[in-house]
Here is the input.
Amino acid sequence: MISFALRAWSASLALAAALAPAAVPSSEPRAASPEAPALEDRAARGLRRAVEYFRKVVAVQGSYLWRYSEDLSRREGEGVASATRGWAQPPGTPSVGRAFLAAHEATGEDCYLEAARETAHALVRGQLESGGWTYVLEFDPAERRKFAYREGGGPKGKNVTTLDDDTTQAALRFLMRADRALAFKDVRIHPCVRSALDCLLRAQYPNGAWPQGFDRFPDPEKFPVRKASFPESWARVWPGSGQYWLRYTLNDNALATTIDTLFEVGRVYGEPTPGNDFIDLAARCRAAAEKAGDFLLLAQMPEPQPVWAQQYDADMHPAWARKFEPPAVTAGESQGVLKTLLQLYRETGHRKYLEPVPKALEYLHRSRLPDGRLARFYELRTNKPLYFTRDYQLTYDDADMPTHYAFKVTDGSDAILREYERLRVSGPEPRPAAPAKQPASVTAKLRAEVELVLAAQDARGRWVETGGLRYHQPKDPSGRVLDCATFVRNVETLSRYLAASRGRGARPAVQ
Here is the structure.
């Protein structure tokens, strides 16, 4: 039962919340303003120029990185990259492919679908023997031998499928959407999706968790199903990385994005349509998502800290990962877990996924720092905030923290509580497998956004912006870059406007 304190907190939030009036679409025909045709035409031309430039000039065999110098001589993903590489980690190749699909859905023009197909084929070429993707998409024939790619890789190459930073998951979500857009008929994409999903399901541990990365499938005998508990003691000094990526992992919301991807399988393949032979696979993926939800129930720590750790060992004790990720409970990933539990309830209607929420929210509420934020890590049992010094010594003092990692995080528990209370009253609201297309509305805000996007675009279709390349030394002297995240955002803005102005419905964006 939810406590009196939490109910009082919830009530005070409800009273404080401002209710925004709902927009009511008009049934009357939209009057054409004098500037509307001109803006629509400029948006269409701007979209075409942007995609053509990226596809013909920036792409490496259909793949994309994160960031480029203006002259394209310097390139990077999460690290310096050569001119023969793409990147599978967002906002790289899958994110750009998603933007191409948005352009196709908004306009119906085949050129955008072909751009998406090229990008999907680049990911097919980057699929590992283990079934998924690592960060790097390498296209130099000799360099490809360093990776165990299914197409042209080396037999002893790197073969770890990574679920870190939404890498394999984002690749799969884009490939599934591309498969649907191509009527499940592309002879490279369709089998790639099946093999990737098959391997992902085989990599799930018996308790429902996944590792951060895998190159083999677990032996069930070595991974008994247990409930999370506190260890009798834990090392205060980092013992070395070992193979931490094989542990049960919640870090960086890896499990949350995996669960979302598995539910997306049902939305893409759950209906019997021509060319779709994945009905049984979609059912298996849904069952795996629910099993992962059951792991989250097992992984909730007992009182006095009823939240979650970033990673657990086979005994279900919080465990070390990297040298700045200690055995602890985490207020960062725990908020992601709570959102995932609410999603599981929306998708399944099983109230067991709501049961852990009240205690966890109360814990977060009482663990707030004086500035209103939360510590990323809290010491087991004592609940003291844990930090690191710049030379990576564990400490209770936040005066000398490294800057590359968020050791303090935003407290989003108020919004989670509001959604919990809404669902508790309203019941589950699963997303339909095939949502009806509803034309969006052209608003003054959307027109203003489009004007800004077009004003920032140069004659070649680029959005060149002031910034730096993070991983290059010496720094790029020009300080001007092309950023894939900006490209994706602007293409999706133009696509959203064109879909609305032409009365075309677009499927909800898959992140």
User: Anything to note?
Assistant: Residues 36-58 form the longest helix (23 residues).
